[in-house]
Amino acid sequence: MNILLHSVYIITMDEEGPTSVINGFVIIKHGEFDQVKEGKPSQEELNNASEVINGKGKWLIPGLINTHGHLGSSLLRGAGDDIPLMKWLETVMWPNEKTFTEDIIKKAVSLAMVEMVKSGTTTFLDMYHLHMETVAQLAQESEMRAVLCRGMIGLCSEKEQRNKLSEAINLHRDVHGMNSGKITVALSPHAPYTCPPSFLQMIIEKAKENNIWIHTHLSETEEEVIKHKEQYGLRPVEHMERIGLFQVPCLVAHAVHLSDNEITILKENNVSVSHNPMSNLKLGSGIAPIPQMISKGINISLGTDSTASNNNLDMFEEVRFAALLHKGISKDPTITKTWDILRMAMENGAKALQLQQLGKIKKGYKADFLLIDPNSAHLTPWDKDRIHSHLVYSAKGFDVSDVFVQGKQLMRSKELLFLDEEKVIYEANSFLHS
Ligand SMILES: [Zn+2]
Q1: Model confidence over 4-47: pLDDT tens digits?
Q2: 190 annotated to bind ligand
Q3: Residue 6, marked binder
Q4: Which domains does the chain have, with CATH numbers?
């Protein structure tokens, strides 16, 4: 399969500025970009293509990468607003999740996938504790790129802890590398406040043994930091370093409440941070010190968290919030740059998820990309100088018309090709009306 897509403005994200926007065409072979060229394709190039697509002047950009979420709880969208994190977990999330069957998980995950593809997400991370083998199956059917983690809470007996860890390791054994490498698996202790040190050490040991990286929630609320200091005499990041968490590659979600020393620890250990601004705002958790982390050189990616704390999975909204938020609280519009914020949802996301050759439109990179129709009032006027700005400050998930993952088309002219949108929405709605 050799796809040639022409008449597009390619936002390569290879280097900052308008020079990285090319009016041209791409050739995709074996799920990767084989050519990214300016101008029109030659007759020979057209003849060699097994499929030729006319991009009709649309923007071609890297697919968006959502580095933190919980797909299984998607049906709890709108179930509990205006509550702080711990109360929300204890009164809304955990009691509801206890009643979740495999069927409910299927409906929730399918709903999230529909929403994500439609709004331009091509890769997602899912941390969840129920039916992750089923999630892997659904991810395969959707043809999306996915990082799956069996989330583990350690507030239970050692026997139960070991069972959870075995499930997580078995998930890695069974589905890591599935669907031509589009599905990968990480280990996921839920958080330091739900996993005692002995359990965390058990997980770290297994991660090292099996060469698996780790994803966890960390320093999400002020309360978490205060309790951690009371219990262990150290702040969470300092404690995690002592326990050995950062001896394996690590992506932490939130990192809202950090001391200068903790920011240094994250940088020294090459830890990536998933910034989830909307979830942090909705739960009143606070605002992560992103400009300070960027200036230290920490890799920052973007995540939505679950629809129960966001309440949608549109990564364009997350990008816009990340771009606006830090300017507002610092009273300094120069504190974050458009380019840096956009890259968080692309190349930085790939790096955070330990995925190689992803997040740019470049020869040898995986062909995960979107087409955006710029013929809308809110994207007008535009030229090469303004596209990056429009993508950060004006674009919406609804502007995405076509989605490709590893060279395979998942959405054509807003129609999903591997997910039955109407059925998925009907069945998800039946959760409340049955
Ligand atoms: Zn989360």
Answers
A1: 999 999 999 998 888 899 999 999 999 999 999 999 999 999 99
A2: yes
A3: no
A4: 2-63+360-416 (2.30.40.10), 64-352 (3.20.20.140)
